[in-house]
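Before going further, it is useful to explain how the protein records used in this thesis are read. An example of such a record is reproduced below.

***
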Amino acid sequence: MKILVTGGTGNVGSGVVKELLKRGAAVRLLSRKQPEASKLPANVEVTVGDLLDPASVEQAMKGVDKLFLLNAVVADELTQALIAYGLAKRAGLRHVTYLSVFKADQFRECSALCIEADR
């Protein structure tokens, strides 16, 4: 099983990556820039791209089974999430976990994305 993790170089995402590796998952990171190798656990595949660049996200999703979607805390977080979710659905990923931090109390409809993707 291969899992694409966005936000995997940040505080929360790096913990997610470590835990997935501990559980035996293959992990691919989508990062806006190439991270320093010394800051990554061994056996993590990195692809450079941006959630606002659909072509790079589509490329990153090739060959993965699941998506852990963690966006940067930015004003267009919802837009980024919707782009990634739509691409995941089109790519046939059957499991998406979306961790939101930006105005989570105001954008409750986002949780419906994750529930639908799990079906």
About this structure: The helical segments are 11-22, 54-61, 77-91, 110-117. The chain has four helices and five strands. The longest strand covers residues 26-31.
